[in-house]
Every structure is written in C-alpha cells, then in structure tokens.
Amino acid sequence: AQTFERNLVTLIAVAESGGATVVLSTFATLHDPYLNWRSPRKTIKKLSPFQQQNVGALYYFTPGLTFAGIFEGIQRYNRIIRNVATQKNAVLVDNGRLIPHQDQYFVDRVHFSAAGARLMAENLAPFLKKILSETVK
C-alpha cells in the first residue's frame, strides 16, 4: 500500500511539473466490494447469475487470496486514491461509488459495457470540460 501511494504521489508530481491538472478515478467493479465477502457462499447466492458467473475469475487472477481479501484490497486501493487526491488537491471522480455494481454496466468483472463506459465518461466530463475551458483562456 505504501509503495502504491508513493508511486501515485510521484506520478502526480511529474504530471503537475509538466503543467497538467490531475484527475484521479477510483476503481469500479461488477462486484460490490462492500458486501459481506467474509461469508462468500451467502453473498454469492444473492448475486445475479452474471455476477455469479464472473466471481469465479477472481480466484484465477488472484490465486491464494480469499474473497474477503480481494475485496478488502479493492476497498483499500480506492481509499488510497481518495486520500492522495485530497492530500494533493487533485480532482477526484469516485467511479468506484458512482458506477452501480450492476450487470448492464460491465461485460465481465472489470471491463465496462457501452453503458458503463458512457456512465464513466459522464462522470468525468464535467471535470474535464472545466479544466479544458480554464486551459483555453
């Protein structure tokens, strides 16, 4: 976590040294990381069939971790992004909270469908429009 935070701060410093305005986005996923993943059987039963189908891929890509560990990691990742955005006065678009964990927004556990990509763009657009309008002046 410390390495990720340090690297994120470094990337922000490099971008700002070049005159960029930094916009950070949290990570949005098909599966809600705030569900009770310490009881995965109960939680998985409550998911849509599409979410149930995609949850198994987590073990393939993160062998040796529990569901609770994986989703606590996603929570921590997003918390670090939020904290760094606050510390560095960067623009934050909290897509991890703004994009619903619903089937229509994803084609798998992490990749957006057209509707998900559109929603992410709609979340980012106001900030980017403001930055671009200030840059053009």
Average per-residue pLDDT, rounded, comes to: 95
Please provide the count of β strands. Answer: 2
**How would you write the strand order of the largest sheet?**
1-2
- Determine the structural class based on helices, strands and strand pairing: mainly alpha
The CA-CA distance between the termini, in Å, is: 39 Å
User: H/E order of the elements?
Assistant: HEHHHHEHH
Poorly predicted sequence stretches spanning 5 or more consecutive residues: none
Number of helices: 7
Strand content: under 5%
Shape: globular
Biggest β-sheet, characterized? 2 strands, parallel
Cα Rg? 17 Å
Helix content estimate: 55-70%
Account of the 3D structure:
By secondary structure, the protein is mainly alpha-helical. It is 60% helix and 4% strand. The protein is built from 7 helices and 2 strands. 17% of the residues are buried.
